[in-house]
Amino acid sequence: MPTLNHTPAFPGPVHAHWRAVAAAKGFDLIARIHDRFHLQLRCRHCSGAFTTKLFTLMRHQPLCPHCLAARRSAVAVAAGVSFLGPDPDRRGYGRFRAPCGHVLTRQFELIDRVAKGQTGLRCETCHAEREASEARRFGWERLGHCPSGQPNYRLYRHHCGHVQRIAQANMLWGQCDCAGCGRGWNAKPSFLYLFRIFLPATTDCPARQYLKLGYSAHPVKRHRHQLGLPRDAQVEVLRVLAMASGHLACRAEQAAHRRLIRAHPEAVVPAAELAGAMNVVREIYRPGLLPVLEAELDRIAAELDAKSGCM
Fold this sequence. Notes:
Elements (H helix, E strand, L loop, with lengths): L2 E2 L2 E2 L7 H9 L2 E7 L4 E6 L5 E5 H6 L5 H15 L2 E5 L6 E5 L5 E5 H8 L8 H14 L2 E6 L7 E6 L4 E5 H6 L16 E10 L8 E9 L2 H8 L7 E10 L2 H18 L7 H4 L9 E2 L4 H19 L3
Antiparallel strand pairs: 1-2, 3-4, 4-5, 6-7, 7-8, 9-10, 10-11, 12-13, 12-14, 13-15
């Protein structure tokens, strides 16, 4: 059986109206190939041959892969990279070689925006190497991205062996005291606290009651001098949980708030309601959430006991 470009020809008829449709769409119909469903076309623009389905030719506009690759190559050059080919695993993505020599996988639409100057393009490998170099200047080793998935944080190991997550911007400027061997707030003992706050009635508002979950090295000082409460406000310390360091307290508090806000959004007090009453307007909850907050602190305490072997 004859072959076309090393492709087996199919011995069926080639109808005249197929050729007419192909010509109207910018192609020459060379032959039927593989089976009764496939055709080989030649692009009249670039003279490149390619395979398409008969259905595609009759119902749609076939795309010449050679012309498409040429257009993508031109866009890639304008974006400052070299087009290597489409990504075999993801539709709409291509593989490109950056000026640094590394291969990037990006959406074609993104490369088009880069070529138009609407956005930039960053090599992850080079960026990670720069972050690792920045960390070494301050005695840290970059281990990778933050396990919690926060995009602006990375995981680092200090020269003392302590591992902690740090905001990448803080590492850039060296604002990264080690919670293991450092002397800053994040290395010193701290506390999680749970306050009940009573705000007396005013001419504009009735009496109000809120719950505040937070962390501080000095919980009493926190509510007396840092919340900005009116003089006649009352604060009841419902619970205090000791933490080994400010770093651990901050991490536990942030994780707790994420869980609480996700599970009980209706219990979060809107910032507008707190305006003028205190200088903290985030992570304040309705009094009905007290059992949930207590259970959250119980869970954190149980985790601390398990880690210290005191179960």
